Amino acid sequence: MKLLSSTGNRVAICLVVSAAGIVSGCSSLPTSGPTARQIIANEKDEAARIGFQIVNLDATTLPQAGATDAMSSAGIAALARNGRVDQVGPGDVLSITIYEVGVTLFGSGTTTLGGTAGSGAAGGGYDPSAKAQNLAGVTVRDDGTIRLPFIGNLRVAGRTTAEIEAMIVAKLRGMSQAPQALVTISGNMTNTILVSGAVTRPGRQQLSLVRERLLDAIAAAGGTGERDGPQSTVVRFTRDGQSAEAYLGTIAPGSAADLTLLPGDRIDLIRRPRSFSVFGAAGKVMQLPIDANVLSLAEAVAQAGGPDDSRADPTAVFVFRDSANGLAAAPGARPAAPMVYRLDLMKPSSYFVAQRFAMRDKDVIYVANARLNQTRKLVEIFNVLFTPVFTLRQTVQ
Question: Domain spanning 36-69+274-370: which superfamily?
Answer without folding.
Answer: Outer membrane lipoprotein wza domain like (3.10.560.10)
